[in-house]
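Pasting as-is:
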Amino acid sequence: MRHFISNIVCGFIWSKKLRDLVRTKIRFPQTREYIRFVRHFAKNMKQCKIKTLVGYGCKNFVIILNNKHVFKFPLLTDGKDISIREKRIVDALYGISPIKIPLMKIIPYKNIYVRKYEFAHGTLLTDVKPSIIGQHQQHIAKQIANFLYVVGMADPVEIRDLKPEPNAKPGFLYGWFQQDIWQNFMLDTKTFDITFFIDWEQTSFEYFVPGLETCSHNWDKFGYQGMMVNVMAEYAKLYFGDK
């Protein structure tokens, strides 16, 4: 019944983000309890400003508190396995990545595992007008290429068991990689330095090409033409310059 009601209500909502949020709140009434949990967390703080949104595929309910803390509540599973896996990856790559990774904690709450992150200040790359990005594309591309190269070539012992083969060695466009790179970079829109890379749960040790093709398609689709060409040119300089 909740699914039926949510579909009727959301049929009148034009914005996809708002539609997903309304649908999630109708279908998952426990989201109200999650908001109360975060308000309780903030009881000793001077303020309690809350923003809610829905993660990709409506798999998570996300609450941002005071632009300082981000809570991710799983909706379709208990979140245990994915939380532990992401925490291991974040901890292993935190001191390696040239772009800051938000600190992460796991909070067991009743029958689920909540992920709590440091708030990533900045503006999503894809929320900045393509015409503005175009003016700073080379500077941004160098940072993304360096990120792909350094993280991809890393081989921390703590997460070798997560590789397809523990003895697999990183190489050209092969190694630790997060496929959703086209939209997870946060920018300082004054300097156009990348401040954070967020959402590491899909990171795996793999070939980059399929993910890069998706990224290139989306960048081109939304007007960021030429970005992938510049990123790959800079990546090649880094990789082959070390040989």
